[in-house]
Design goal:
CATH architecture of one domain: 3-Layer(aba) Sandwich
Radius of gyration: 22 Å
Structural class: alpha/beta
Distance between the termini: 9 Å
Shape: globular
Helix content: 25-40%
Order of helices and strands: HHEHEHEHEHEEEEEHHEEEHHHEH
Bound molecules: pyridoxal-5'-phosphate
Strand content: 5-15%
CATH topology of one domain: Aspartate Aminotransferase, domain 2
Length: 406
């Protein structure tokens, strides 16, 4: 049996995985074009061009570029009329922005547990969390795997709720052949550095609803209205506009997105097959209705009982030492310090809110298990190479198992 790298043995892999971001002359030329145009912000043509191209790509009428995925969520919530006194159902297994955006509009995030197979929000738990104060649901397509949008849209219709898809990790993902970001009332994407479509920072809201689109446009543009004058501000907004630099980069990056998604899918499906053969490793389940997974993250579940009860933390250390970058992922959001201390004044105790929430009492056992002992992540650029990269991952895990179980 080969000695583990963590014990001084030779690592399975000594070279890196494909790096991120990917760029070439086309990004340099696009940036030069913006530079030489002298139009670096509003008034340039790159942001409108990208808004139109991305909206078309997703299959919606309107796209509104903003500064980040976080502000996309905040603007979408405001456009949807979510505010003080309202509850918004969110998963606890996601990045903080999904819940903090709700607090930022003075509404209350209500956590609904995730599905143990997909790690996406569980529609049964959503249904249980609904009260007369519920205004919206934010399903997150975690890791780029579409949530069960059939069930979520049915629940939303039944209870007259708004659905804002958090697509921050899911550019190009499809549910039954339809791109995410076009299924709910609004979709929110992030273009932060690590994302599958990236510009360093940035975000976009996608929607087919003209009224929501116009409101998003106003809120991100200082409260102006589309046909109004520069110094007319009928609404309360902020300046959340994207720069021309970001849009220029995104237009170039977008040309590679479909090909990169295809390569990620080929490699990830191959890895799914190989890892499924190892007792104690279960890849994230891909529902048959998921026609394209974005694989921003490749998620699998580690069962310590099949690895001689060695805890996940030790497994991750051994895997990293073998040259395979990996992460344990999130903590349940409601366990974060933000939710431990009582949130003073608005939104929890501002008089508008008629419910009662004590985040220290929230329990989402599936998310807790995923965060504490089971979930493992690989990152999207690891899937941009070829099958030999996947074989290294498989061989590293097999080597670790042999050693742990010897
Ligand atoms: C699920 C999810 N939602 C929202 C965001 C926020 O996006 P940004 O970092 O662009 O503000 C992220 C980014 O990490 C995310 O992963």
């Amino acid at each position: 049996m080969k000695k583990l790298a963590i014990d001084g043995g030779k690592p399975i892999r000594e070279k890196g995985f494909p790096s991120w971001p990917v760029w070439d002359e086309s990004e340099i030329n696009a940036l030069r074009e913006v530079l030489e145009s002298g139009r670096w912000g509003i008034g340039g043509d790159k942001v409108p061009e990208f808004e139109q191209k991305f909206a078309e790509y997703v299959g919606v009428e309107h796209g509104i570029c903003v500064t980040s995925g976080t502000t996309a969520l905040e603007v979408a919530l405001k456009a949807g009329g979510v505010g003080p006194g309202d509850e918004v159902i969110v998963p606890p297994y996601t990045f903080m922005a999904t819940a903090s955006a709700v607090l930022q509009v003075n509404a209350i995030p209500i956590f609904a547990d995730i599905d143990p197979d997909t790690y996406n929000i569980d529609p049964n738990e959503v249904e249980k969390a609904i009260t007369e104060r519920t205004k919206a649901i934010i399903p997150v397509h975690i890791g780029g795997c579409p949530a069960d949008m059939d069930a979520i849209m049915d629940i939303a219709k039944k209870h007259n709720l708004i659905v804002i898809e958090d697509c921050a990790q899911a550019h190009s993902a499809e549910w039954k052949g339809q791109k995410v970001g076009s299924i709910g009332d609004m979709g929110c994407f992030s273009f932060q550095s690590s994302k599958n479509l990236c510009a360093g920072e940035g975000g976009i809201i996608t929607t087919n609803n003209r009224e929501f689109g116009d409101k998003c446009w106003s809120f991100h543009n200082c409260g102006r209205v589309r046909q109004g004058a520069w110094y007319e501000h009928p609404l309360l907004g902020s300046n959340l506009r994207m720069t021309e630099w970001q849009a220029a980069i995104l237009l170039s990056q977008m040309k590679r997105l479909d090909e990169q998604t295809k390569i990620r899918n080929e490699n990830a499906l191959y890895l799914d097959k190989k890892l499924s053969e190892i007792d104690g490793i279960r890849p994230q389940k891909r529902d048959d209705r998921v026609t394209t997974h974005a694989y921003h993250l490749y998620i699998f579940r580690y069962d310590a009982s099949k690895f001689n009860n060695v805890p996940r933390a030790e497994f991750l250390k051994a895997l990293s030492a073998e040259g395979i970058p990996c992460s344990p992922g999130y903590n349940p959001l409601y366990k974060d310090d933000l939710f431990k201390a009582p949130i003073e004044k608005c939104p929890l105790s501002c008089g508008y809110y008629k419910g009662k929430v004590d985040y220290t009492k929230v329990e989402c056992p599936v998310a807790e298990k995923a965060c504490r002992e089971e979930g493992v992540w690989f990152f999207q650029s690891m899937f941009l190479g070829d099958k030999s990269d996947m074989d290294d991952i498989v061989n590293a895990i097999k080597k670790i198992k042999d050693n742990f179980c010897a």
